[in-house]
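Thread: magnesium ion complex, take 2
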Amino acid sequence: MTSTATPAWLLDSEVGLCPCGCIGTRKKANLVDKTIAGSASLLRRAMFADDTSAQPGLLQRVDPRIKVLSLVGLLVVTSLVHHIPVLLAMYLATLPLAVASRLSLRFFVKRVWLFIPIFTGVIVLPAMFSFITHGHIVVPLGHWFGHRVGLTSQGLRSAGLIVIRVATSISLVVLLTLTTPWVELLAALRALRVPRMFVLVTGMAYRYLFHLLDSVTDMYTARKSRMVGRETDVVAGRAFVGASAGAMFGKAHALSEEVYSAMIARGYNGNARTMNRFRLGVQDLVWVTACLAAAVVVLGWDHAIGR
Amino acid sequence: MQSVADPILVVDGVSYSYLDKFPALVDVSLTVRRGEKVALLGANGCGKSTLLKVLDGLVFPDAGSYHAFGTAVTEQHLEDQQFSEGFRSRVGFVFQNSDAQVFSSNVRDEIAFGPLNMAMPLDQVKRRVDDTLEMLDIADIADRAPYQLSGGQKKRVAIASVLVMNPEVLIFDEPTAALDPRTQHWLMELIVELNRAGKTIVLATHDLATLETLADRCAVFSEDHRIIADGTPEDILADRRLLLSVNLIHDDDPMHEHPHMLIP
Ligand SMILES: Nc1ncnc2c1ncn2[C@@H]1O[C@H](COP(=O)(O)OP(=O)(O)OP(=O)(O)O)[C@@H](O)[C@H]1O
Ligand SMILES: [Mg+2]
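Output below.
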């Protein structure tokens, strides 16, 4: 029978490699470091709001079904508004709501604006230029190929409109997701007769994402702990990201499959159930009335300004 | 009361391969009787976890059959709501990896998950959850999120989430792995106690030292995914040739001469 011998060096203690203390030289964490660790934890906090949804805040008191419906309504209103000041007012109105729901204002704002470039960058950037949106040039950028090029006022306006509309919509969605525990959100969707399959798949996707983020952080930490000294090699850093991406998806997939079996084993069949039975109360009525009033005011105002 | 010899889980000639190319079970037969403690013994990768998943109706054999409580457990039958609820509430599974099993946003919700799926009345769910928290001594962490728990605490939560449904059959995949000695001891006592209370226990392990406490029968897997022996822990532990052949003990390792240590 063969057995692999333990290498001798492993049996000796290492001489002087790491006197575990500070010797005074420091280095700055590099950009890849910061982005990976930073975006994983931010995304994580941005999407998994189990701590904030348990706070005794304003929106936490509203019935999840009502919240989902009013969100959809307000999103429709947002898409119908055509004037920046009106949208700006709507956006600003989400801020006190966030505060009343015990969300950290800084984090709320940060998390909303984090998503904006992802959603709007591609559309908004070109739209500002005169060769896409023709009109009155306000910021001239010289002459290219014999044409005057610059940012047009019309371009800036439509870009601003898109950005503020997206910001408002995301704020609304974030308000909903941060103040509703995930299970209750799923249960609310079920109660609103969203097909079981859809809710099931959404639930699984959420799980998957969760484990994906976990494995990003894990693998990153695991690699970091194996690195001695400073990593100067940017190419190696990138290669790691490339190579680990595949393994990561596999790992996250395996774990989410395991979680899924664990749910099935305890009788899960897509009917999300929670301990809190949904019951409508006065606060729900107040909330609905407020939303309707807001919608009327916003649409009326937008209409009054005209096109 | 039913007789002790009453077979409740019957696996007959089952084979299973992952993705049709990685064999995990080859022609495996096993009968579990009511009130028994059965251990599946074998080296890493021999198929213990897979067989447990078959027993819990999570994986369905490519060949052979599996009956539980007299009914065939198939994917089709489990689509039937009544059968599925009955089966799921009668057989509980504690996973090897607690991370996979603890998925709710806090411990209380986690434990309530099973009973709620069984459509148990709400006040009864709440009462049971409280009792279970108490019993497993985790009431103080009831409102914490799973990722704020230690490995041992997660294990307790995982066990609580299964016990709360009060299943007749409890399946444990490597219950004592990755636990500190004190928690290990606690869990072993719990398993024995549950068995005394009439629960049937099936568990996978490769820990020979705990075998006599945790099992009154054990089935030994060979590395080619077959069950090659089935007997009392005493008989199995005394059979050094067998244990050597399935790589559960090592030729020149005096520490693994368990038979002599355990049976004076
Ligand atoms: N998801 C999977 N995909 C492909 N092959 C798998 C998968 N899960 C297990 N296997 C293979 O099936 C075989 C049996 O695996 P199983 O997990 O049942 O072993 P085990 O006896 O529980 O091992 P361990 O003691 O390490 O937990 C192994 O050879 C393994 O490589
Ligand atoms: Mg296993």
